[in-house]
Amino acid sequence: MPSDFAMSAALPPAEQSGASSPSLKHVLSPKIISAKARPLGKTENKSGRLILFFLVGAIFWVFVFGLLYRLLKYFRGIPEIGALLSAKLLGLMFVSLFGILILSNVVTALSSFFLAKDLDLLVAAPVDWLRLYGAKLLETTGHSSWMVVLVSTPVLTAYGIVYHGGVLYPLIAILAVLPFLFIPAAIGTAVTLLLVNIFPARRTRDILSVIAILAAAGVVLVFRLVRPERLARPEGFRSLVGFIALLRGPTSPWLPSEWASQGMMSWLREEPELLPFYLLWSTAAMVIVLGAVLHRWLYTRGFSKSQESGERWARQGVLGKFVSRMLAPWGVMRRELVLKEMRLFFRDTTQWSQLILLAVLVVVYVFNIKFLPLRGEGVTFFLANVIPFVNLILAGFVLASIAARFIFPGISLEGRTLWLLRSSPLEMRQLLWSKFWVGTIPLLGLALVLVFATDVLLQVSGFMMAVSIFTITLMTFAIAGLALGFGALFPKFNTENAAQIPTSFGGLVLMMSSVVLIGAVIVLEARPVYEYVSARMLKVDPDPTEMWLGFGGAALVSLAATFLPIRMAVQRMRELER
Amino acid sequence: MIELRNLTKKYGSFTAVDAIDLSVPDGELFGFLGPNGAGKTTTLRMIAGILQPTAGSIHLAGIDLAEDPLAAKSRLGFIPDRPFIYEKLTGAEFLRFVGGLYGQNGDKLEHRGRELMALFDLEEWADELVESYSHGMRQKLIISSAFIHRPDVIVVDEPMVGLDPKAARILKDLFREYVRRGHTIMMSTHTLEVAETLCDRIAIIQHGKIRAVGTIQDLRAQSTGGGGLEEIFLKLTGERAAREAMDVLDA
């Protein structure tokens, strides 16, 4: 064995002295390089997508900024309580963001700390625990916070401009927001770490997603039951003093959200306070240190547990058998596609558990309608007819968010198995339409129940009921078409967590275009509805041309929004090389 | 039968597959060899209809893939190199789904699915979710799915990766018997021993071009000096062999 000997003799020993753990920057470098490469990559239509992104982003920012600017200007004009209202609004925004951030960090930490593909490499490499924690914490914070930063920038800018924050205001905002982002990241990461260690390994992922969803549902319900709209109706309080006392008091004195809003408002009121900033930064430092300690104790055990796979048996359920029989006339291929979609959905906890959130959303929605002050003085015949019309806009938003959760990810989730579909004699048109129907039929059922129930609660006229049903049916098809279309045009094939797909760029574009669609349909229908209601009041016949133009136009827009995106998606899928 | 005419695939200025002409008749097991990045997988994925050629044509069982893709694909079974399948389906459900894609259902499909799973020792796992399968088991399931609709042509990328010795042996026997019945198989592999013992003809591809094609005897004649397939391969591809390993390790 001379060569072996020579080799071992010649091989330089691993540089023990220099074999220190790689730096945090080095551990993070693949992510940084990938993030840099993403916008510069040679994917087709890159420039078009970038332009669309900036356009949509700019429109959104201008919209949010404009809204806040007008509202804050109005608040500023109110003596005594104006500044209090602005502060309360900022506090409420930060509280909601804090809740959202905690939840999104719990979910993101599960991906980045336990499921990410690079972990095998990192855990096997001589990377020490602290650097791994640091790198993954930064990654988690970035992933779960970018949208919050995007949304809050125009809001905070509006505050700065209305209250003349000065040149130092952006710095103050960063000083307040930065620790505000890291605190929930460290807490969310620690919660995930504990859960992964506590629950039986095989079920961790499932249990975690259900817990996250239940928590989100809880937050939404509690927030709703508190009825924050009372703040906007001072007459509900016994006295003005009581109302001002409520406004003056902190929303949640022990939460970082309160410190962030206090710190910023104190600067804007020109009475800067240091305490909130001190609290924010010291708490951030403390939770990160505690998180790191916890990570050191529990990460190795938790990571090992999370690698064990589930051993589960599955048989066709009653629903599967029923659907299978129902779909028999539609051909084998369609039947199998639909059955596959259903199985994948109901067996994936991260997917079906979102139904809980959906149920809460519906409850909150109906609850809101029930408590609308629609009877009594001041509620005219006209208003009673307009409210159900506005109801359609809200129902449209609910549908859009559901479509973004359930229909939009359809194509992305197909990513790794596309080889099978593309090498088989399956038409891409057939694949997309089967996905469309699987998503649209339950969505339509929900939409009809939602609109019918709320219309009954609102005691609307037969005409408005017909308009509502007609509009929501068209809107459901259009929103589903958009969701599927954008899902195929902006797919995320390599995602490690299905729950993150709706929050991708394509999801954002979908939500924005849904808003535009809903707006267009409502604007088109507003005229004939106004015409009809006025004609009823004047006891004359409405102008049929106006009716045809308005409702026909709305139908055309909806049908175009249904078919065009799917056509584009079919084309894109045919050209896709995967 | 598989016929490739002037088959070309370019990614921007990079030519992955460069005007390949090849004909694999019925009843032949054809091997596709080449170094990493030579264009094997790209060629096979074009034949499977997953990638679109930049130029040239592909005929499967006499049908032009570009002109009538659905008819051509219905005659094909494809086994990819990476076994990505639906994690939340059971093995049996997956086979049923694939059968459905090719318009098959009923008792015959169920029977064939059971037989194929039994052949690869998967029958005990038939009702278990794919997410609990090992790499090799997934590979066996995908191989079974490629046979479920009795295709005329099978295209397979690296079939032996992840298979245990018993499964590898079963697969070899299955492939041989399949071509004996008049079907066509085209496979890429890095295992030269498999290519040498299993394939009727072999093509060696490098930088997207076919360097040599023929039986082992033909290849031996083409590469001066003869020797086993490994020597022929290294000579034809001009790869610098292990002699440099020492220099690298010393570096």
Q: What would you say this structure looks like, in words?
A:
- The complex is a heterodimer of chains A (578) and B (251).
- In chain A, helix 19 packs antiparallel against helix 20.
- Chain A has helices spanning 2-10, 24-40, 46-77, 82-115, 119-124, 129-162, 169-198, 204-225, 240-248, 256-268, 275-307, 318-326, 332-347, 349-352, 354-370, 381-406, 410-413, 418-422, 428-458, 462-489, 505-538, 544-575.
- Chain A is an all-alpha fold.
- Chain A is globular and about 80 Å long.
- Chain A has 3 domains: 47-307, no CATH class; 313-347, no CATH class; 354-575, no CATH class.
- Chain B is an alpha/beta fold and 251 residues long.
- Chain B has 2 domains: 2-75 and 151-250, P-loop containing nucleotide triphosphate hydrolases (Rossmann fold); 85-150, no CATH class.
- Chain B contains 10 helices and 10 strands.
- The N and C termini of chain B lie far apart (49 Å).
- The model of chain B has no long low-confidence stretch (mean pLDDT 90).
- The A-B interface holds A 3, 6-7, 10-11, 42, 309-316, 331-333, 335-337, 339-340, 343-344, 347-348, 416-427, 575, 577-578 and B 12, 45, 48-52, 69-71, 73-74, 76, 78, 80, 84-86, 88-90, 93, 96-105, 127-129, 131-132, 145, 246, 249-250.
Give unreliable regions of chain A as ranges: 1-19
Biggest sheet descriptor of chain A:
none
CATH topology term of the largest domain in chain B: Rossmann fold
Question: How many domains make up the coordinates of chain B?
Answer: 2
Secondary structure tally, helices of chain A = 22
Q: State the fourth-level CATH superfamily of the largest domain in chain B.
A: P-loop containing nucleotide triphosphate hydrolases
| Overall spatial form of chain B | globular
Portion of residues within helices of chain B = 25-40%
Using only C-alpha atoms, the radius of gyration of chain A works out to 27 Å
Silhouette of chain A: globular
Radius of gyration of chain B: 19 Å
- CATH C-level class of the largest domain in chain B is Alpha Beta
Q: Which residue ranges of chain B are poorly predicted, with pLDDT under 50 across at least 5 consecutive positions?
A: none
| CATH architectural label of the largest domain in chain B | 3-Layer(aba) Sandwich
